[in-house]
Amino acid sequence: MKTSFLLIFALFLFHSGYAQKKIGLVLSGGGASALAHVGVLKALEEFNIPIDYITGSSAGALVGSLYSCGYSPLEIEQFVLSEDFLLMSKGGLRPENQFLLREKEYDASTLGFSLAKDSIIRKSIPLNVVTPTLLDFEMLKVLGLTGASAAHDFDNLFIPFRCVASDVYGKNSVTFSKGNLNEAVRASMTYPLYVNPIKIDGVIYFDGGMYNNFPSNVMCDDFSPDFVIGSNVSSNMELPDERDMFGVLRSMLTTPTNYELSCCDGIVVEAKTDIGVFEFERAKEAIDEGYSKTLEKIDSIVKLVGRKEDPELLVLRRNKFRASLPELKISSIETHNGRQKEVLFANRSLMRNKKNEVLSKEVFEKRYFRLSATPSIWYMYPNLSMKSDSTYHLDLKVSKAKEFTIDVGGHFSSRPVNTGYLGLGYQNMGKSAFTIHAESYFGKFYGSVNTNFEISLPTTIPISIAGYYTMNRWDFFRSFATFFEDVTPSFLVQFEMYGGLSLKSTIR
Questions:
Q1: Is the pLDDT at 491 greater than 90, yes or no?
Q2: Domain boundaries, the chain
């Protein structure tokens, strides 16, 4: 009898230990092709495979962080297939987020340059193709809010999470386990020269895939799971041709990654596609590929994991976690860029200095995008921290635009309407934001000089005061000549001069 009892007790202990096997999920980088991870998650959930830990790099960090924040694979799929996500990937804005009052009016320029007064060349070379204003804001609403509610500890998320980014100065991979979740993921997916890098605690970070595109080592070091499922869409690049400039540059900037699992048992799902890094319009192809490749190995995964998640319990836990997050309400704001007096305009544009003012999500969104449209602001990055009253404090990093602008362009043809264009501008901000601009159109038939200024005030209803002076000239006699001919004397010349002041505002 005693022997039977001990045998049953031993079997119970074995079964309990087996049932509690911890499962880790590692998601590689890979740009648009890394959206295959969404398909991997769909297949794993369909077969009730539990996920206890997640690590990700680059686009894998984005997918993994959304799952760690309690979003289901279906919700993530709907997000990455949406028009909004495509806009984010291209640096665009939704129509309702555009603020035409502060946008630059159309002119004949085809090339534009910005110059910084303190370093004309060094700070005037652009570091990005797109400005991810919409992406950063949406990540704040989802990842930033969830991370702040979790006390900035990634172990407190719905699923414990880690992501990696590349410290290009120290030339090493950095693992984020605490801090602002949206900021950590944004750093991990900062593809060089496509989106601008961000600075965290004084360190400039770029794409995590540069030094660690498959953070299985982070999974092993931080979580020590019993079994790891890897999802990989990348591979180490081949030796580039010496005449391939971009290939040589890429090999200089990246370090080969080990795409194998070495610390414990596991399976790697390889979803390889021909989808380009920025071809996010092909997201559905990537998701379907990840789903089908996972199904090919699902029998082995089910057998080796030996544990299943109760789908109803998973939904209940997910809903409970999401419901516990306080609504986004901003009760205090701090803006900074090193020179506090230069960001007074930004601070007052968001918070009107009213006692106990609390911004709802809708009001905050409207004011945020209005501020981002200010020509004197180059870039803003927002972070959240939760206060004791369950409202949030906004920490806004503001980068001023370069003060001087030069625009060139025109219209050139074989007809006598050739016209060149040159525009010069200066912009700055303090308690208000202001721009001064002068432009000239010059040609045989038409010539024009225009000067204008605009002062934007951080009032409750945005107001701009503008002034302008214009001189136009039409030469009907020489209009038959080519652009480079000099025909004198000139007759039938018409001049026009006018100027004025205007007060501009919005109706809502």
A1: no
A2: 23-91+130-324, 330-399, 404-505
